[in-house]
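RECORD TYPE: protein structure
NAME: S-adenosyl-L-methionine-dependent methyltransferase
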Amino acid sequence: MAPQSDDYVFTRDLLDNSRLNLMHHYYVKDFGYLIHPNIPTQGENLKVADVGSGTGMWLVDASDRLHESTQLVGLDISFDAAPPPEALPSNITLQRWDVNDAVPDGLLGAFDIINVRFMVFVVRKDDVPATVGKLVQMLKPGGHLQWMEPDNQTVHGEVTKPENKKESIEALMRLLQSQDPRLNPTWVPDLPGVFRDAGLEDVEADVHTTPPHWAYLEHECGLIMHELIARKTQNEAMAAELKRLIPLAVEETKRGAYLATTKYAVVGRKRR
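PREDICTED:
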């Protein structure tokens, strides 16, 4: 989900969509679940929202896993990345909403489950409490909020052999963090506290260390991100440096270097 001025740092094109769809499957395999085990999903007639639904991949996967009576709603400011509505399962609908706006009346107290993911480069630190507050308003009493993100403050290079180099992959991340504050978020570890401050109960954080085989694959997919930013940025010097570093990072990756990141899946329940 991007602000109305289209401040989104990526490109919403076929390459970007494919990156997000592939990363979705890696995250589900890595964590071992689409919806946290603490969240009940066996009931009928559940109403479920995916905020910042993007390509719709989470919704489609949820449609396959949940009871056929479940209503799934994708909320985003742009559906340029989503399939045409007629190509989606019949229990999925898409509705425009910007998290910076007030919650529409029709969404207040509407959902049993709300999922949020891959918003780390969209929501600013100062806006996180207000965003969580709006999501809580959208839950039914007893409903659950799930928010899953990488903690970019923990990004670091790993190698499969001591002789492998990782300088270029680490330089890529440092470049992004230094040039664009949106790409250096610090708030992910704060989410459990923000959930509690918003009145959510039974808050749990699954702080996840990714095993090397998944970390490598996620890193390889994540390299596409740098290419997309090089295309989108208006900073010519940054674009040139990205284009210089990307081939070097790809070569390091082939030889067995990768970026690893701690991830958070935070869940909480609204009071009944």
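COMMENT: Residues 40 and 239 are 45 Å apart (CA to CA).
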